[in-house]
Amino acid sequence: MRLILAIYLLIYLISSPSLANETSLKVSYFKDGTEYTVLGEKTAQGYRFNADSNKVLNLATLNWPPYISEEVCNKGWVFQLTVALLVSKGYQVNIHFFPWARSVKLVEQGDMDILFPEYFIESSAPSDVIQGKKRRELLALSNRFTGGELALLKRKGDPFQLEPNLSNLKGKMIGVVRGYQNTPEFDAMMDSDQFSTIDAVDELQLMKLLVAKRVRLIVGDPEVFNFSVNYSELSNRNKQALLNGVEQVKPALKYNHLYYAVSNKYPNWHTLLDDINLALIEFKQSGETDRIVNLGSGCELDF
User: Fold this and answer.
1) Is residue 121 part of a domain?
2) Residue 23 near residue 41, CB atoms below 8 Å
3) Domain enclosing residue 176, as ranges
4) How far, in Å, are 60, 126, 198, 296 from residue 68 at the CA level?
């Protein structure tokens, strides 16, 4: 009887969707009318695709649902698009999830090859990792692809209204995620200490800071705030308290496209950047980028 129960348990575990998602992954894409399917695997360091290729890439990213996250089914559309783009050019893809500030550090130092998804980096943006260097001296940006809104959030009922030149941000306490680019105007004000900031490790922590009245405003992608709360381990009651306690400041600061940032310490980084840009063009022209974005995570959300 014990043997039979053990066999049933083993069969259940092997067939369990959650376990299957952790041990293997599948990315499919169309190119020149042909569908390609790439099987990946969970490794001790992250997620590997196209393991037979000797053109090895290590990519650093973050949990940023719904765009990309280990908690989202199929890891999100940015994950799927990234694998498809790079495998289509023959690369072995190794994706590693870290807090964003660590991902930035690893790529700017040259310990990893690609940082993604990144917002546009101004040529004047200083590196927080290497003293005296600009970020664009360390990283090369790809062509842009689909992104999302960047906005301020406030507590529900707060009368704050944003002025077009952002002048009424002066003197405010604002929550930001450590290491994020925002908009050139916002970041210039932040770098010149025109308002005070509290750094957070992610969007969930920002939401908690806002509702707890530690800050007057927070900045980020509204979708990411929503998904970060819903995918958290908080109780349903606490999730609703966070989501119902905040509202977006209209209008949004900006629509931010996304980019890949390639370390200039990667051998032949020019070739890598050209390959990424060519793949982005090919996928956009064929409609494959839109197909992957519209497909989303490819499964029902279950909050």
Assistant:
1) yes
2) yes
3) 148-254
4) 12, 26, 24, 10
Query: What does the CA dihedral 262, 182, 61, 77 come to, rounded to 10 degrees?
Result: -100
Report the SS3 class of residue 262: strand
CA-nearest of 101, 27, 119 to 60 is 101
* Residue at token pair 């190794």: 94
Q: Which tokens sit at 222?
A: 């509204």
Instruction: In whole angstroms, give the CA distance from residue 50 to residue 88.
Output: 10
The answer to whether residues 45 and 132 belong to one domain is yes
**Side chain identity at 88, as an amino acid letter?**
S
First to last CA, the chain: 37
Q: What does the pLDDT look like over 177-204, one tens digit per residue?
A: 999 999 999 999 999 999 999 999 999 9
Count how many domains the chain has. 2
**Strands 47-49, 246-248: parallel, antiparallel or unpaired by DSSP?**
unpaired
Tell me the pTM. Answer: 0.88
